[in-house]
Fold this sequence. Notes:
Elements: H1 2-27, E1 31-33, E2 36-38, E3 42-50, E4 57-63, E5 69-73, E6 79-85, E7 91-98, E8 108-116, E9 122-126, E10 128-132, E11 137-140, E12 151-156, E13 158-160, E14 166-168, E15 174-175, H2 184-208
Parallel strand pairs: 2-12
Antiparallel strand pairs: 1-3, 3-8, 4-7, 4-10, 5-8, 6-7, 9-12, 10-11, 13-14, 14-15
Amino acid sequence: MYSKIKNIIRIWGLAFIFSLVFVSAASAQVVVSPSSSLVSASELYTVKVPVEKNNPTNKITLKIPSGEVFKQYEPVVGWTFSMEKDSSDKVTSITWTATGDGILPGQFQEFKFVAENSKTAVKVAWDAYQYYKDGSVLEWTKNEGADTPHSATNIVAGHVMPDGSIMLNSMMSTQSSQSGTDSNIPMAVWISIISIAIATIAMILTVLGPRKL
Length: 213
């Protein structure tokens, strides 16, 4: 009986650690919000940059997705701003560079900019490159569910409701337009729930033990 209790504690401990790893990884990523916006709208976007290493972040570069048109940025004290353009004079990436210590471990910084959304409904991906003082670069460019996923924004046809949510023209669903939400986080939460559910099943089987026929 004592060995069974030890096995239960071990299983639950592993499941708890597993869930913490996925949730913390999701919360530590570079996030661009909102996760939903309207077609052709002039949207205020916020880039939230946390530091997940024991080293300051001194530069962040964000790629502007195809169909999005960069318009303006909000100055941030202690940071310079620069941008790159293509041959048609369209802004393809924007960069904030620290003039001082940058973002220290345990801190985060928000950067804001305005972009004109795509004229058609589409899901745009925000590839981000996080530079650390030690010279390393963390590339947030992979798909949802990966270890370093990019943020994404659903550009939809609809109108803004009084509560700030977006009602689709199709009337089939409502998506939140509020800042600070991201479609990558729920994936990590689901993985955590699944891992705990598996641990629960394993615990039940351990308690019941093999049944004799």
